[in-house]
Structures are given as structure tokens and as C-alpha cells.
Design goal:
65% helix, 30 helices, elongated
């Protein structure tokens, strides 16, 4: 008697290679243009452009920081490390940061094809899913936004975890199981979106792996909690899976659930860490601010809107304003759509299992970001669909296969429809990517396709400010304040504008207004201190720097500027050499000693403390770094100061 064959994996053919090359070519053709894109003002400053720690690259101190920080209201150390590596390799060349995202997106698309073909043995449906994933316009945000490195990085580990799990299912040994757990942990350290992956693995057990055991007496498709898996192959009396990996033994549901417990434990730890980080960072919106009935309504509408934009991707925006009241007919329509699709998935659970898997993949993976726990001011976001849309793509791909088998004479029409869908996505994505060229084009587009919001106006203002258009920026800030008068941070960005224009009295007033609304706004204290220093009010400036450091003890700019006053002020009553050294050394350590202007301050502090040998060495290092980064004026200044330090003379800055 022959033993049932155990699958050793689908045969790799020339067609598979052609498909992978085609995916690579299409993604590269569509996304290569990001090589010439800039950083944007929305989140990129916090992650890269104004984060001196990240710019310092991968150091021991930064490695430790990445694993303990909850900055940006998340715990995602691998994401921080990836940005640090980018800065170490590419500096602040925005195009190269963008291309790293594109590389991950290419890998994700290729892996998705490989994994689904491995699980199902179906080449063309797997290719269709991968092509839609690769080219859908809703995924532009995740790829073309540097700050969304966490999306493409976490998805990389998501798909690798699926692959490792399938390898474990083929040969269930401890090493393969632990490897899948490790990949899940790495994914969770990239973005907590992977908390739903254990549930997706259970869906894959249902289809296409066909591991779940049904009772011999029940042909209705209901699950049975039988004995804890004998490891026997599928029996003739059990319904045979419509497709899947042949030769795999079925396993009782109870054992499959037990198998997922370690995965669920990792997900639970990540959930707790994320909720704590978001509460600490004030990203979670209180129930009083957004009542639960509004959250449920928004969730229902968002499920329908995401599905609608998947089919007809129009009016895509970097930010969708939160709508507190939706027309009743829209809410009812969205609810009926969800109920109807859920009923269809349950109805087809026996003969069309891909419907249930695809639909519950879509519903489940969106749960963490659907708004029931509201984080941020958006109602929805394109980036949230990066993984969830795979479920809908699966429904479409295997649905076309089913329809083609039922009506073979229309197979050509269904194939043509699939190719048209992929081609349409390619064209739409080709036109969507250029909006991400810079902040001005991105947020002007957002204003044109939405009702507008304070967030959109503010970020457009920041973008205009970066382009040297301060008056237009002020107009956008004013428009944003009309929508949200409580936006205390806008007074501090307007204070920055006024400081840059030399209007220090007005700047002081703006910073003071911001601090009335939020007294613990460290950046506003720092900005106010800069304006006060420019007016010659150094003692008051020191008090503001001290307050900023009380709130944020590692705020680099405040540390540096305080150290400079303590080291160089002509008023001896304000100078304090040892304290200047402490602040300047901390600022340099936090940034990996790679910022020449910080090293220049440290050199001045050493000189004030009488450590002239250290002052000369540090000033020389500052000059070398400044020259290497094209900052010739800064290099010349440090060279001149170095001669003063050699002569045993500390630097004194004349008060205004």
C-alpha cells in the first residue's frame, strides 16, 4: 500500500522567473521617480530630517535607545534602526531613503507571489494577487513616504513569517516553528500591525493549507474539536479541500489553536506595549473627545470606503479629515455591504473557502487601525491597507479562476479583465506617485480632494516655509487655526518664521501664546529662548532652556544652546564651565559625535572649563566634519577658534 505523498514544494519554472522579472520591472518603472523626491514635513522631521540621533547613524548608544524609546507613540526599534542605517549610508539624500522603501516593496511583492504559489500551487492567481499588491494606488503612500518605512519593513517580516509557517507545516519540527516565531517578533518590532498575523495563520490552515479536521459525520463544513491530531492524512469520509498542499495531515481545531498560543502571546505583548506607548505619547484620543458611537460609525464607513477605493481608487489623500456625522443612508449602506459580504463568505466556506479567508483577512487585519481605538486625527489612511487588501485580492484572483472553470467559453474575457485591472492600477499609480514629490504638491493635492483640515493646512504651511515662501505659509497657518484654534504648535511654527525674519518681539509673543495653551511644550520653550537670546536677554533665555530640558532632558538643541551661553557669554555671572561641558557632552553623545556644530560648542565648553587640550582636539574634529559635509564657513570658524584655544584663551561672545 502506497503512503500519501508529502509535498516538497511546487516546481519552479521559467514562467515563475518571468513573472518575478515582470513584477520587478513594473514596480521599478512606476516607483523609480521617487529617487528625485524630497522628504516631506509630515512625520519625516521626527523620523529623520530633524532627528539628530537618527542622523548619527547606528551606534551602541543609538542601538540601546531604539529598543527603549517610545518616541512617535510606538515601540518599533527595527524601524528606528533602519532609518539610522540609511542616514549612516546615505546621509540626508532623500532619494536614496525613498529607494530603500521601493526595494522592500519589490521584495514584498515577489515574496507574496512565491508564498501563495507554494501554498496553492496556482501560478497565475498568485501572480495576480502579487501584481495588484505591487501596483495598486492605495499602496503608494506606504512606498513613497519615508516615514512609512515601518509599513514595508513590517510587511517584509509578515510575508516571511507566512513562508516560515508553511515550511513548518510541511515538516513540523521545533526549529522551523521557532523560526516562524522569531520572524513574527521581528515584524512586531517593525510595526505592531502584525498583531493580527496569528489569526491569519489560522485562516491559512483553513485554506489553502487544508489542515483543519472536520468530523466524518458532518459534511456541512462546521468545525470539530476532535482529538489532538493523530497526524493521519485526510480520510475519504472527510470533505477534501478544494485546493491546497497535497499530503498534509489534518489537525484538530483545538490543537491548531494551541499551536498559535505563542504567536498570540507575542501579539498580546506588542498590543500592550503599543497602547502604553500611544497613551504616553498622547496619540490615543480619549473617549470623551470621540464617543464610541462615532468610532463605530467611522469604522463601518471606513471598511466600505477602503473596499470602494480598492475597486475605484479616486481622491486619494495623505490625510482624510475625521467626519463626526455621516448621512444615515451611507451608514446603512456600508453596514448592509459588510453584512452581505460576510454572509457570502460564510455561505462559501465549504466549496469556495478562499472567500472566507480573503474576507476575514480583510476585516481582521484592519481591526487595529479601524478607529475603535482612535490614534491621531485621521478618519482613515491609505497606508493602513498595505496588508489588508491582500485578502480582497485573494477573493478576486480565485474568484476569477472559479468563474472561468464554470464558464470556460468566457475564460478569455475573465483573463482580459484581470489584465485590464493590473494595467489600470499601473497607470493610476504612475500618476499618483508624483504627488509625493514634496510637501507642497502633496498637501495641495490633499486640499483639492478633501474638505480640508487643520492638519493639511499646517503641513502645507510647513512645506511652503521650507520653500522660502513665508507669507504663503502664514496664510496656511492662519487657515489651519480657523479650523482648530487649539493648535498650540502653530503659534510656535509662526514664531520660527518671525524669528527668521528678525521680528523678535512678535516671535516672543507667538511662543508665549503657545506656552499658555501648553506649558510643557519643550520646543516652544527652546524657540522662545532663541528669540530672547537674539534680543540680548540671555538670562531669560537660560531660564527657558532649563524649562525645556526639565520637560525633555535630552532635547539636543536646548542642551547645545544652553551650553553655548554658559561657555561663551561675556557676563561672568552667566558662565559655568563644568555645566557647559556636561550639556555639550550629552548633546554630542546623543548624536554620535557626528554633528560639527555640536562639537564646536563642546570645544568652547572645554575651553571655558580650562581643558584647552580637549578644546583644540574637539575643535579640529568639528572643522574636519564641517569640511566633509560641505559646511565651509563652520569649518573656518572652528579653525580660528582652535588657534585661540591653543593660546589658552576661551571664546567670548559679545552680548547684544
Amino acid at each position: 500500500m502506497m503512503k500519501p505523498a508529502v509535498m516538497s514544494g511546487p516546481v519552479w519554472t521559467r514562467w515563475d522567473l518571468i513573472i518575478c522579472l515582470a513584477l520587478f520591472g513594473m514596480i521599478a518603472a512606476v516607483f523609480w521617480q521617487v529617487r528625485y523626491h524630497e522628504f516631506i514635513t509630515y512625520d519625516d522631521p521626527n523620523y529623520v530630517t530633524e532627528n539628530l540621533r537618527v542622523q548619527a547613524g547606528l551606534t551602541k548608544a543609538n542601538l540601546a535607545w531604539a529598543f527603549r524609546t517610545t518616541s512617535e507613540s510606538n515601540w518599533h526599534p527595527l524601524t528606528w534602526l533602519s532609518h539610522m542605517l540609511d542616514c549612516q549610508w546615505f546621509g540626508l539624500d532623500a532619494g536614496k531613503h525613498h529607494l530603500v522603501n521601493v526595494v522592500f516593496h519589490i521584495l514584498n511583492s515577489l515574496l507574496l507571489f512565491v508564498v501563495f504559489k507554494k501554498m496553492t500551487g496556482a501560478r497565475w492567481p498568485s501572480a495576480f494577487v502579487a501584481a495588484l499588491f505591487a501596483l495598486h494606488p492605495l499602496h503608494v503612500e506606504s512606498v513613497a513616504w519615508v516615514s512609512e518605512r515601518k509599513d514595508v519593513l513590517s510587511a517584509f517580516f509578515w510575508i516571511l513569517t507566512m513562508w516560515a509557517y508553511v515550511c513548518y507545516v510541511e515538516r513540523p519540527v521545533l526549529g522551523r516553528y521557532l523560526f516562524a516565531l522569531l520572524l513574527l517578533a521581528l515584524g512586531l518590532m517593525s510595526k505592531p500591525m502584525l498583531v493580527t498575523l496569528p489569526c491569519v495563520l489560522f485562516l491559512l490552515d483553513f485554506w489553502p493549507l487544508g489542515r483543519i479536521r472536520f468530523t466524518a459525520r458532518d459534511s456541512s463544513g462546521r468545525l470539530s474539536f476532535g482529538s489532538r491530531g493523530s497526524g493521519k492524512a485526510v480520510q475519504p469520509s472527510e470533505p477534501k479541500p478544494p485546493s491546497g498542499m497535497p499530503g498534509l495531515p489534518t489537525v484538530a481545531v483545538g490543537r491548531l489553536l494551541l499551536e498559535k498560543v505563542p504567536f498570540l502571546a507575542l501579539a498580546g505583548i506588542s498590543c500592550a506595549a503599543t497602547y502604553w506607548a500611544q497613551k504616553k505619547g498622547e496619540a490615543v484620543v480619549a473617549v470623551a473627545a470621540v464617543p464610541m458611537d462615532q468610532r463605530f460609525t467611522n469604522a463601518i464607513i471606513s471598511y466600505a470606503r477602503y473596499a470602494g477605493k480598492m475597486i475605484w481608487p479616486e481622491s486619494l489623500s495623505v490625510f482624510y479629515p475625521y467626519v463626526r456625522t455621516w448621512p444615515a443612508w451611507q451608514v446603512l449602506g456600508a453596514l448592509l455591504l459588510l453584512i452581505g459580504a460576510t454572509w457570502l463568505a460564510i455561505w462559501g466556506r465549504r466549496n469556495h473557502r478562499y472567500l472566507a479567508v480573503g474576507w476575514f483577512w480583510y476585516l481582521g487585519t484592519l481591526v487595529p487601525v479601524i478607529g475603535l481605538i482612535q490614534a491621531g486625527a485621521q478618519s482613515m489612511a491609505d497606508r493602513y491597507t498595505y496588508i489588508p487588501l491582500i485578502g480582497l485580492f485573494v477573493m478576486m484572483a480565485w474568484g476569477i479562476v472559479d468563474l472561468s472553470s464554470r464558464w470556460p467559453q468566457k475564460k478569455f474575457a475573465f483573463t482580459t479583465l484581470a489584465l485590464a485591472g493590473v494595467s489600470g492600477c499601473l497607470v493610476l499609480t504612475l500618476f499618483q506617485v508624483p504627488f509625493w514629490k514634496n510637501s507642497v504638491s502633496l498637501f495641495e493635492h490633499a486640499l483639492s480632494v478633501t474638505s480640508g483640515s487643520a492638519t493639511i493646512h499646517f503641513n502645507l504651511g510647513y512645506g511652503l516655509l521650507d520653500k522660502g515662501r513665508p507669507e504663503e505659509a502664514r496664510a496656511q497657518f492662519a487657515a489651519g487655526l480657523q479650523r482648530d484654534p487649539r493648535a498650540y504648535w502653530v503659534d510656535a511654527k509662526m514664531g520660527d518664521i518671525l524669528t527668521g525674519q528678525g521680528k523678535f518681539d512678535e516671535a516672543v509673543a507667538k511662543y508665549s501664546e503657545a506656552l499658555k495653551l501648553r506649558p510643557d511644550f519643550a520646543e516652544a520653550h527652546t524657540g522662545l529662548a532663541l528669540a530672547l537670546s537674539a534680543q540680548g536677554r540671555s538670562r531669560e533665555a537660560l531660564a527657558q532652556y532649563e524649562e525645556a530640558l526639565r520637560v525633555k532632558p535630552q532635547l539636543v538643541l536646548a542642551l547645545n544652546n544652553r551650553a553655548w551661553i554658559l561657555a561663551t557669554h561675556e557676563d561672568a555671572t552667566l558662565r559655568n564651565g563644568p555645566e557647559a561641558v556636561r550639556c555639550a557632552e550629552l548633546a554630542c553623545e546623543l548624536t554620535g559625535r557626528k554633528q560639527p556644530f555640536l562639537l564646536g560648542t563642546l570645544a568652547a565648553a572645554y575651553a571655558e572649563a580650562g581643558q584647552f587640550s580637549e578644546a583644540v582636539t574637539t575643535a579640529q574634529r568639528a572643522a574636519e566634519l564641517a569640511l566633509a559635509t560641505g559646511q565651509k564657513d563652520l569649518a573656518l570658524t572652528n579653525q580660528k577658534l582652535m588657534e585661540s584655544y591653543r593660546a589658552g584663551k576661551p571664546y567670548r561672545e559679545k552680548a547684544l
